[in-house]
Amino acid sequence: MRLDKKDMVLYAVTDRHWLNGESLYSQVEKALKGGATFIQLREKNLGEEEFLAEAKEIARLCKSYHVPFVINDNVEIAKKVDADGVHVGQSDMEALDVRKTLGEDKIIGVTAKTVEQALKAQAHGADYLGVGAVFGTTSKADATKLDHKVLKEICETVDIPVVAIGGITEENVTELAGNGICGVAVISAVFGQPDIEQATKELKEKVEGMLK
């Protein structure tokens, strides 16, 4: 699957913290209905069997919406469910090794916080970068806030698409204008909202306006 910059506009990352008795599947479907352009399944504490079953279902769902679907960190599960790719952090598997496991036609995203990390990821075959945290965030305890100058510098240095991540909301997203990003990756701004479909729709409009 080739990655199009348009796919990166609104990148939604799952989190079962906000399920409140609902299934992750139905929440992802609401985000897709609201216009999410990319889905990442992020599971930190789910057993392998449940993770695999859930990944299969959500992979099918994303296919039916023609939206790229990647799995956070777990290269084996991504391979088993034939996901579109994987997203890895700096402490996870190297992009080079992920590429060897998944093959040439899969999407590989890498988290980067510095120009050096960004260039290395690109050299190792990453298809896109997630850069942040651009604002303070509650979903990652160890995330330190990144200077927006660094974000801009990374966008100017690499040739692959960059999405900003970390603490992005409908209220602050316009502050990211002019940095050269292709879109934003969010968790709570979509999945932590009472009306996921509507929140996704409104956020997407804001992001598209900011990217113009």
From TrEMBL:
SUPFAM superfamilies listed in its UniProt record: Thiamin phosphate synthase
Which parts of the sequence belong to the Thiamine phosphate synthase/TenI domain?
10-190
GO CC annotation: what is one?
A: cytoplasm
What's the catalysed reaction? 4-methyl-5-(2-phosphooxyethyl)-thiazole + 4-amino-2-methyl-5-(diphosphooxymethyl)pyrimidine + H(+) = thiamine phosphate + diphosphate; 2-[(2R,5Z)-2-carboxy-4-methylthiazol-5(2H)-ylidene]ethyl phosphate + 4-amino-2-methyl-5-(diphosphooxymethyl)pyrimidine + 2 H(+) = thiamine phosphate + CO2 + diphosphate; 2-(2-carboxy-4-methylthiazol-5-yl)ethyl phosphate + 4-amino-2-methyl-5-(diphosphooxymethyl)pyrimidine + 2 H(+) = thiamine phosphate + CO2 + diphosphate
Q: What is its EC number?
A: 2.5.1.3
Q: Name one Pfam family in it.
A: TMP-TENI
Q: Which UniProt keywords apply?
A: Magnesium, Metal-binding, Thiamine biosynthesis, Transferase
Which one GO biological process term can you cite for this protein? thiamine diphosphate biosynthetic process
Pathway(s) it belongs to: Cofactor biosynthesis; thiamine diphosphate biosynthesis; thiamine phosphate from 4-amino-2-methyl-5-diphosphomethylpyrimidine and 4-methyl-5-(2-phosphoethyl)-thiazole: step 1/1
Q: Which Gene3D superfamilies does this UniProt record tie to the protein?
A: Aldolase class I
Q: What class of enzyme is it?
A: transferase
Residues annotated as binding Mg(2+) are 73, 92
Specify the domain of life of the species encoding this protein. Answer: Bacteria
Cofactors (names):
Mg(2+)
List GO molecular-function terms, semicolon-separated. Answer: magnesium ion binding; thiamine-phosphate diphosphorylase activity
Details of cofactor binding: Binds 1 Mg(2+) ion per subunit.
Q: Which residues bind 2-[(2R,5Z)-2-carboxy-4-methylthiazol-5(2H)-ylidene]ethyl phosphate?
A: 137-139, 167, 187-188
Family stated for the protein in its record:
Belongs to the thiamine-phosphate synthase family.
Q: Which NCBIfam families match?
A: thiE
Q: What does this protein do?
A: Condenses 4-methyl-5-(beta-hydroxyethyl)thiazole monophosphate (THZ-P) and 2-methyl-4-amino-5-hydroxymethyl pyrimidine pyrophosphate (HMP-PP) to form thiamine monophosphate (TMP).
| Record's protein name | Thiamine-phosphate synthase
Q: Which gene encodes it?
A: thiE
